[in-house]
Records
---
Amino acid sequence: QRVKYLIDLTKPFVAAIATIGTTKGPTIYLVLVYYNQLFDILEEAIKRLKNKRIPWKKDIY
């Protein structure tokens, strides 16, 4: 369950890296768009973990 959670959390990062890596000369604009989206994902994950009672989820937070 822990591994699945971490895999699900990192999927958007893998997709962003793959997209940026396959474009011909990524622009700053593209990088900033992905940065903002990924940061929002992290903030949402932190909010969800904040009130968890399961020890391993509390450790992640």
---
Amino acid sequence: MLQRSERALSPRLGPVLRYDLPASLVVFLVALPLSLGIAIASGAPALAGLIAAVVGGIVAGALGGSPLQVSGPAAGLTVIVAGLVGEFGWKVTCAITVAAGVLQVLFGLSKVARAALAISPVVVHAMLAGIGLVIALQQVHVLLGGESRSSAWANVTELPGQVLDAHGPGVFLGALVIAVLVGWKWVPGRLGKVPGPLVAIVASTAIAVAFEFDVDRVTLNGSLLDAIALPSLPEGKWGAFAVGVLTVALIASVESLLSAVSVDRMQNGPRTNFDRELVGQGAANIASGTLGGLPVTGVIVRSSTNVAAGARTRASAVMHGVWVLAFALPFAGLAERIPMAALAGLLVFIGIQLVKRVHIETARRTGDIAVYAVTVLGVVFLNLLEGVLIGLALSIALTVWRVVRTHIVAEPLGAGDGGQDDGDWRIVIEGSCSFLSLPRLTSVLASVPPGAKVSVDLSVDFIDHAAHGAIADWRRQHQASGGSVDIRQHGTVEMDSALDGPPVRDIGSVAERLSATGNSRVGRFVIQGDDPPMPTPEESNETRHAPTPTG
């Protein structure tokens, strides 16, 4: 009996010990400096970052729906948390984290997780880029020996003065960290597999200790157990409290789900259960806020490192949280030797990494660069919520314009007896023809001279009563002037359907017509549409060494 149990247990423990254990150690080394840096940038106690890393690894790792995703404190929430700490204080911010976790659990139980994926990717990318710029602008002041200002505009305008008053040793340490992170991806062999952030922070700390640099260092105010702070409710400002809860819940949920999608693209194992992932993330935020930790979300840098290190199951994420706990309990005091300028250099690098050239190129290529730019500027110079709402509104407006716009042209085909203008004319109307098209439609129709012989190629998938009336009225007037009108309909919607009832969009008949003619392009397109796009070479390369979008 005992031998059978050992044989049954061995196939389960084998992959864990061979693949997940080494991967968890690598992720632990990546998470340690990032968690401290994100906590300090958020205006929270430094150990709150380690609490969130422990809870994110153990709770979200065990309960979440993405087996290889690693959760913890993320740069994407830094700006939000810093604002909440400034407005409410740390303990109320912990209560906001707990309430946001409850809301995430309700999202997951309501089976609405996939709805979060409907947000335009360009808005999400721009949001992260804006957050990155805010972090970089704040932390460059710390790197130079000063303090971050209250707004992005103040950080920009007061930067020249801060440069003139720069503190030499701090600038050297921060620049050293950035230089190590930039160059680490070119380090060959086994040394290159050591996480760059860990090397940069350890090297700068060792130099600061060896040469006794006079620089500000991390302050912990006690042990990990001392950092546990029960949340408290606000005294007033309940409206702002509710907005904070909703903001943290939505941003953390979207960031976690998008990270899970990226993890699915990196490996061929089980796919993410998005609703379960939200439940796991919510449970982690409830636990983290209750214990005095930062908000938790799925983090792409740790997740991609986990996959690249060979993890096979969720045991890797859970064990990484255990390693953070095992380090923090006896050795957290070592963090007090870390120079603040070194962590500032790490955060400046992370912030700049959030502004990705591949995302800007994609936005430019797809015609969404205006949405990207407006969202970034809104996040940086207004606030995150207003910037995202402006970006979403602009993205929706642009999408509506693209969907409803109509291509309408008129061109002469030949000269008649009276000259070129009254010969044969051809009018092409393509797209969605609605009342929004009337200015262009009536202008083009009016450009056709009286008496011309006109052929109208109507290829639309939508036509409403207003557009139908404009075309019908013009046809009657043109025929009354001695001309002729031949309407040839090639679209999925007939012109007179606008008179039969409420207008509808009909795209199904396209597939039916192509299938009837033996054209298989539609079938191939549908198959391609169902397959998730593979990551670009730039996205694949980002997962090896350097911190990526959400820190």
---
Amino acid sequence: MEARARHHHHHLRQLRAALLRRGHPIPALPAAHPHPDRAHLSAIRAAAASAPRLALAACACLRRAGLPPPGPRALPALLRSAARCDGAGAYVGGAHAVAVRVGALGDGFVGTALVGAYVACGRAADARRVFDGMLVRDVVAWGVMLDSYCQIQNYEAALLLFAEMKRSGVVPDQLILATVLSACGHIRHFRTGKAIHSYMLVSAILINAHLSSALINLYASCAKMDMAEKLYNGMLRKDLVSSTAMVFGYAKNGKVEVARSIFDGMPEKDVVSWSAMISGYAESNQPNEALSLFSDMQENGIMPDDVTVLSAISACANLGSLDKAIWIHSFTENNGLTKTLRVCNALIDMFAKCGDITLALNIFNGIPHKNVITWTSMIAAFAMHGDGKSALVLFEQMKKEGVEPNKVTFLNLLYACCHAGLVHEGRSMFRCMVQEYMIEPNHEHYGCMVDLLGRAKLLQEAVDLIESMHLGPNVAIWGSLLAACWMHGDLKLGAFAAKEVLELDPNHDGASVLLSKIYAKSGSWNDAEEVRGVMKLHGVSKETGSSWMVLNDPNHEFAAGGGKHPESDKILLKLDGKRKCSATQREPCDFFQPGGKLPMRWYPQDYLQKAPMMNMAMRANPASGRRLAAASSV
């Protein structure tokens, strides 16, 4: 026994020497220390200042030296150190066992520290079990548990816990109120957030800068910019958080000019501010401005994070420029951001929309642990490029890997079948979704099936499907049927579908134009003239389609039937010469053959989904790109 004690004291002396070399001395501790818990606390604090794992080693050495286990004073410090170690879950679990052994779980400080430790290592369920078992739960304990739900983005659970806290009689402090307001903003619970604001006013709670920022963020997230602006203008000192919230709110609600004005007036900007403004440009279909600001951000010495990069990737995808896509991919690789799964998923989508399916596939194959979004993104990429068979093969591989598909996965599979004309496979995917995975189809799924059947001239089957829908058909579904009827010459059914579209959307230009053409084609000139008259009366006009291409960096836009391009005369002259030259050489272009390469870069996904017949040559502008295939084919 004496030899064993000497051995443990030797380890303790070694630990003390190691800590002393690192500049964190602890006193010499005899085996019979008068205050063993203080001894543990002293050792843990000194060791934790150097490295969290050393704190655990210090505690173990003290135990071997004969001291009892750490008590209520030392356990919170031990738990904080355990949560900072690699593989923290096991260490926190061990500290939890020590707390149970010494009967310290009844102590409020220990319980709160244990909840916080489990939260820090990502074990929210264990944190909640400890929290529910606590005899005394003060405002700090409630705050830690609320914060844990917000960290894992379970905002609904955070609001339910806050309601439970109110029922228990615990009065929330400013930090808790700010946390709950943030949760309301994330899930756009305007009524709950407004009720909390009213509670703060009635209870005469001091609304400090932190709470003001949380309220501004809430109202901005819920598109209540008038309320957010009123709070913002009433602040004596507009801090970084509140200004960023205003930038985010205005940008999110399409007022990017106002957002940019606030952004430019901010004396200091952090990565969140820059990200909010870049995201605003990307979501407002201003990709060039987004990428320009992304470059300015780095010139100002601010390093983009994965959130910023996601907005830049979205801008590149929207722009359709492969050169810029390769540039942003290189940036993510050089800065270690390709280790983030959501960045890799976005890169797959970007390369697909910029026309390079090979690079998209390379990114996909390089991801070691793929989630459902990864698989769905690659399936969507094949769908964009009209490669339905590859999309279906990938789906089978996805099932073998044990990844369960969701609604979006099946939507892209149906699009893939639609673009490739795979009717049997499309029916099979629809049945698989409903019967095997119990996924309720929505309007988009039905619209895809109607489009698929309509293109295959299975008009009666498309009508039967519409009649069997559990929810009422919308404009897109009737529009798909209308386009198919016009394509295959079923004027009677087409007129019926057009009327259904116009009943739901009287100002729908595409349906009005097609209905007029259907009447004209069937010889009903009076009806055709009446439709044209109604269009004129309501100010409905067919939007001009446009396309663009990237050549030596600038974007060149061309409008149907117009001389929008500054060099349109030269282009028309050149095309006229080419047309005469090719009159005697009628060989088909290789890129229109099966497996041929596309000569241009484009790809807005929603336009591809609605107008795949045009997907070899043009990218529609955002306004016309959202129109139905029926309108686009006129």
